[in-house]
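Researcher: Final request for today, and then I'll write up notes for the group meeting. The sequence and the SMILES for zinc ion follow.
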Amino acid sequence: MGTCAGTNKDGTSCSNAALDGSRYCHVHQGAEGQSADAHAEDEYSFGTMLAGALAVSVVTYFLLHIVLGV
Ligand SMILES: [Zn+2]
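Model: Predicted protein-zinc ion complex:
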């Protein structure tokens, strides 16, 4: 029993206590092996969010030009 060997989503080491007979806490227990997929999913979500924000900015920019005639 000790500290969890898992890594948090922000890249820092997990500071939770590891479960008995495991190197991981209740959060990372069972997530081991899926972390790569979860990480990829996070990056995909972030990229999608960024693309969405960029699209909104571009649309707003052109709408302002059209409506205000700037
Ligand atoms: Zn943990």
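Model: Residues 33 and 62 are 45 Å apart (CA to CA). Residues 4, 6, 14, 16, 24-25, 27-28 surround zinc ion (CB under 6 Å).
Researcher: Thanks, that's everything.
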